[in-house]
Design a protein that fits this description.
The protein contains ten helices and eleven strands. It has two domains: 150 residues, BsuBI/PstI restriction endonuclease, N-terminal domain (Arc Repressor Mutant, subunit A); 150 residues, 3-Layer(aba) Sandwich (Trna Endonuclease, Chain: A, domain 1), CATH 3.40.1350. The chain is α+β, with helices and mostly antiparallel strands and 319 residues long.
Length: 319
């Protein structure tokens, strides 16, 4: 088959498999061809086979090397969000089948054609196509639910109150946010109200926006929130916590950003950098801003205070 023929067929297969119009395009067709490793010169779709686990980088390489189609580096997110996510939801592709608990922002995230979908794809152009397609379409909802359930079991549960909990995307970063909310808060700001936690999968993992507005702060969709925000009503503190697993302590620049973002708060601001361990903390020590606190999850009953006139509490200075 020629390149043009393969792309036409791949688009027709995606359409038949129920993909929305936004994924009936060349980008999605090339992605499908990469997942089943079908190349110009292959005469029939029965030659399609599982290409193994592929990163988005591997898909872009396939497009360039096999189809002479060059995509810019900044299109990786488009492939991820506008093609791969829909293929996964449709039961055509699997997400991190080798490690479903992998963090959503890991550079090792990968994708693979679903075995059930591959059987249908291999039948394209044969007498078995219609029957196999019908079976797949009837089971598609079940496949998607099963794949979603497999991912959900690795999500990180975070207890907000006795009767409320949320889940965050898998990964060490979410585990550290969980420790901030459930362990740090219990020890150092008991009874605090959770206002916000971020999520690597969804920016607004949890957000009690009305409470924050009551405290004088209105944050737009582009506000760069800290990883966790807690309100300690006993002392009228807003605790702004950053969870650091690979980057991003409260350094002087981040301190200024947060001070500006929360400048109108009627509560005092307390800045906390949280690390999973003291070992991780060591490499960031030169970056941490003065008049902030550091908490390590492996020594949860201790705080490290970076100078200032008090051990834990806000300072009156404004940005």
């Amino acid at each position: 088959m020629t390149r043009a023929k393969l792309l036409r067929d791949a688009t027709a297969i995606l359409t038949a498999l129920g993909m929305p119009r936004g994924q009936q395009n060349e980008r999605s067709a090339l992605t499908l061809l990469a997942l089943v490793n079908l190349k110009p010169g292959d005469k029939i779709w029965a030659k399609a086979h599982d290409a193994g686990t592929l990163r988005i980088r591997d898909v872009l390489d396939f497009c360039r090397n096999v189809f002479n189609k060059l995509y810019a580096e900044n299109t990786r997110e488009t492939f991820r969000r506008q093609t791969m996510h829909q293929l996964i939801d449709a039961g055509i592709a699997l997400y991190n089948p080798d490690d479903p608990g992998r963090a959503i922002n890991s550079p090792h995230n990968c994708y693979r054609v679903a075995p059930e979908a591959l059987q249908v794809i291999q039948a394209y152009g044969t007498a078995q196509w219609a029957a196999k397609l019908e079976v797949f379409l009837l089971s598609k909802a079940t496949l998607a639910q099963r794949n979603a359930s497999a991912r959900d079991q690795f999500k990180v549960p975070v207890k907000i109150s006795d009767d409320q909990a949320i889940t965050l995307s898998p990964g060490e970063h979410s585990q550290l946010i969980k420790a901030i909310v459930e362990d740090f808060a219990e020890r150092f700001v008991p009874g605090a109200d959770l206002i916000y936690v971020g999520d690597t999968g969804e920016k607004w993992g949890y957000f009690n926006e009305p409470l924050l507005e009551q405290l004088g702060v209105k944050v737009g969709s582009h506000g760069k929130m800290p990883d966790a925000v807690l309100y300690y009503p006993e002392r009228k503190w807003l605790v702004l916590a950053e969870a650091v697993t690979s980057h991003g302590p409260v350094d002087p620049k981040r301190h200024r950003e947060l001070a500006t973002l929360f400048a109108d708060a009627t509560a005092g601001l307390v800045y906390v950098t949280a690390f999973p361990s003291r070992q991780v903390m060591r490499s960031y020590l030169p970056e941490i801003a003065w008049e902030t606190e550091v908490w390590c999850a492996d020594a949860p009953s201790h705080l490290i205070h970076f100078n200032g006139e008090r051990f834990l509490g806000p300072y009156a200075s404004k940005p």
